[in-house]
Amino acid sequence: LLEEVRKKEEGGNDDKIINLVQKLEEKSSNNSTNNEDESSNDRFKSLIGLYEVSYIKSKRQGDNPVGGKWTRKNSIAQKLLRTRRTFQHILPANTTTLVRNYYNSSKAAESIGEAINVISLEALWGWIRLTIILRGDAIPLTLQERTNTSRVVQPLTLRAVKVLFDPPRIILGKTGKLFNINVGPTTSVLLDTLYCDEYLRIGMGGTSGTRFVFERCLEENDKEEAKEFLPLLNRRPTSKRKALSVLGTLFITGLYVSIIRRNALLRITGGILGLLSFLLGSLIATSTGGIEQGDRSVEFRKEETI
Hints:
- By secondary structure, the chain is an alpha+beta fold.
- 33% of the residues lie in helices and 27% in strands.
- The strands form 2 sheets. Strands 1, 2, 5, 6, 7, 8, 9, 10, 11 and 12 form a 10-stranded antiparallel sheet that branches. It has a two-stranded antiparallel sheet with strand order 3-4.
- The longest helix has 23 residues, at 264-286.
């Protein structure tokens, strides 16, 4: 499957990937995942790991389940930035020390792990780095939630979780010292695991049916890059006022360089810097954090608080 996914990046056959995904899902189903003890969280242990998002297959046209506005092809962000890598890690509970406890149905439910979505973007040949992080607590679903077909696309397995995400963290620079802010709404998604082994994990959006292939980061270089989010996330966020002040300064500087300087390279660099600063400032001012208008995960999270 991973070999076919790599071929797909070079124009390979999408049907082969879907066929292999279905075969692995059937294999996992035949191994009777649902016979596991629902009262024990041991069933989630095999999911723990660092993963790169390798393949996405949406059921609904126009869906962009990974990255929102940041990775949509026709967005301003993609006109200015290049997507480096996208990750979705499943970590042991409280790895980031930011975990919280929530209530599932009417009883207390402890998080069985943390879900970390990371979008890494860059511009100007890597001189500008932008990282978007979504950190959430993964909570096991009850039988009622897994089988509620008015919400889920199909009955979900015992490894299905509800992930309660914090507002997106937007970080400019490789260290996060310059710009590091939480902005946007909290969200909630349902994610099921239909297959998992030592190389990959096949996930499914519980309400959308979107299929994901996540490849484990096994090489040391991949592991190091996959964990770059940790010091960024643990850094204290910047206030909204300070963030807008920094971006305003960068915008004016970029605009000045793009107009005044005669050197073509400097003018292009200044223009990109100005546009990127304006884009980030707009996102912060409107408080979306890159989450798209009409994203159902926002409404689902609001229901959690009712």
